[in-house]
Every structure is written in C-alpha cells, then in structure tokens.
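Q: Got a minute? One more chain.
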Amino acid sequence: MSTDPWGRSDREWIQTYRGRQFWPLQPRAEEVFLDDIAHALARQCRFSGHCLAFYSVAQHSILVSQCAPPGEDPLWGLLHDAAEAYLIDMARPVKHSPMLDGFRQVEDLVMAAICRRFGIAKTQPAWVKHADRVVLATEKRDVMAPPARPWTPGLEPLPEPIRPLGPLDAERAFHERFAELQHRSRANR
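A: Always. Here it is, folded:
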C-alpha cells in the first residue's frame, strides 16, 4: 500500500468530478475546489430523493444563502452543506443517530477544510440553522408530497415558491451565487 507525501493511504481517497484525489478522512483545504462542490451538490437530491421533482442540495444551499440577515456572511449559507459534496446528503434521522458519531466527525473534518479553503469562520453562525429551517418549511410546502403524519419545521416558509432546477442549471446557479458573493465581499473591503 502506498501513501501520498502526507502519509495518507492510497486506499482512502475518492476521485472528484474533475478527476482530483480527495481524502475525506484526512482532508486538506488546498484539495477543496468549488467546481467539485457545485457539481456534486447539483446532482444530489434532497430528502434522499423523496421529492415530487428532482431538487438538489445545491439549490437548497443557494436558498439558505439568500436568507442571510444584513451584516452576516451569506457564503456560510451557500457552503453549509458543502461537505456533502465529498460525503453524501444523508437523511436526518440516520445522520443524527448515535450509531453515526464517526460519520459526523468525518463531516466536521471535511467542513473544517472547506472553511479554511474559503476563508469562512470555522463555527457555523446561528443564522444558518434558522435559515436552513425556513428553507425546510418552504421545501415541505413546495417539493414534498402531503405528509402521512403532520410535521412542521415550526417556521413560516419563504413567500416565493421553489421552482426546482435540473442538475446543470443548479450547478450554474451555485457558481453564479458564489461569484456574486465573492464580488460583494471584494466591494465591501
């Protein structure tokens, strides 16, 4: 078994969209790329695919970023699920099970590398969780079938309905939102 210059096993990496190597168990910020994130998230369907139409994690992330309160960094909202590009989007009850503590530790490692790569705070701001729940309420209304049993995210949905994008459009929109936020960030310096 061979290793890379940092001692990482040749068996513990994944190949990304652009053919790059990425070690999810030992991630490095310089091996995180926006094109890999945008591509993978645009092809992962929310809710384990149990939507009325294909609706991607990328589109969800764009909506969360658009909910950033004034004075907060919307880039955290856009990237809040970026680790899923290198791992997966997992159903909430499974992901938060005590049996998956190790998975969540790996996800934290990947997210820390993403934060370093894009220069965002290591700790997720509180507004992101709130925005995520507002978007969840909107998704329940717009992209899910009527539930077999009542459930509520406890927040009012966004006023505008979600119009699900296909993977190519979601990927393009993710790139556009990132570019917009980068431009805005430079203009505010």
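A: Residues 14-187 form a domain with the Hypothetical protein af1432 fold (CATH 1.10.3210.10).
Q: Perfect, thanks.
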